[in-house]
């Protein structure tokens, strides 16, 4: 299982994998493997993924079956696992805790050939609805301090499957960059009574 470890010098946390070390050859792109004949994200292949945790689909279709517009499943090879407690430990200057978190895959469309950029407004709205639903659900878990949605586009960027998808991770720590942004927002509100993000947007719009 993975583990969070804190760097006492920088004050940052990293995720380490204790059970398996990747070999250098695993970082090379195997294009024959990527060019698979059957995509596990396509309709009709739902049994090849973990059970869906959310989907936008007609009421007359069953979970984990074709008919969906957007589908969310746990990552089959997660960096973090949602089951268990953090089990924080301290040994001298070193701090660690178990690799507890959420790692999900948002399959953005049933169409294997289309990217997120090629979806129409209605389809893109459905993807945003799926994002929102999963963020609202995971934020209820008191173990998690930060949630992030990210997207790797293309094999070179780390996307092993060409079918359009993004990922969501929930972690039990607040990254330093995010912590600094929150401090700036709090200071701006204290000084002006305004939301910093709102003021930045208003200034950008005013500047054209």
Say which CATH homologous superfamily of the largest domain is assigned. Answer: HIT-like
Unreliable residue stretches: 23-27
Query: Spatial order of the strands in the main sheet?
Result: 3-4-7-9-8
Number of strands: 9
Following the backbone from N to C, one meets helices and strands in this order, namely EEHEEEEEHEEHH
> Domains counted in the coordinates: how many?
2
- Say what oligomer this is: single chain
End-to-end span in angstroms?
A: 49 Å
CATH architecture of the largest domain: 2-Layer Sandwich
Molecular shape: globular
Nearest-integer average pLDDT: 90
Q: Which fold name fills CATH's third level, the topology of the largest domain?
A: HIT family, subunit A
The level 1 CATH classification of the largest domain is Alpha Beta
Total number of helices: 4
Range of helix content: 10-25%
Q: Major β-sheet, in short?
A: 5 strands, antiparallel
Radius of gyration: 20 Å
Which strand-content bin applies to the residues?
A: 15-25%
Structural class: alpha+beta
């Amino acid at each position: 299982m993975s583990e969070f470890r804190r760097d006492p010098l920088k004050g940052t946390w990293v995720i380490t994998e204790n059970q398996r070390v990747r070999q250098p050859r695993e970082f090379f792109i195997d294009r024959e493997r990527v060019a698979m004949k059957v995509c596990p994200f396509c309709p009709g292949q739902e049994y090849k993924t973990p059970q869906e945790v959310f989907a936008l689909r007609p009421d007359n279709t069953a979970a984990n079956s074709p008919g969906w517009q957007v589908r969310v499943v746990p990552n089959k090879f997660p960096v973090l696992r949602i089951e268990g407690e953090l089990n924080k430990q301290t040994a001298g200057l070193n701090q660690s805790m178990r690799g507890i978190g959420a790692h999900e895959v948002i399959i953005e469309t049933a169409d294997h050939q289309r990217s997120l950029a090629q979806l129409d407004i209605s389809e893109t709205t459905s993807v945003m609805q799926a994002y929102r639903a999963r963020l609202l659900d995971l934020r209820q878990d008191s173990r998690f301090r930060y949630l992030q949605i990210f997207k790797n586009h293309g094999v070179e960027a780390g996307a092993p499957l060409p079918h359009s998808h993004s990922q969501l991770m929930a972690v039990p720590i607040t990254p330093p960059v995010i912590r600094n942004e929150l401090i700036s927002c709090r200071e701006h509100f204290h000084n002006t009574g305004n939301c910093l993000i709102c003021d930045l947007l208003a200034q950008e719009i005013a500047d054209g």
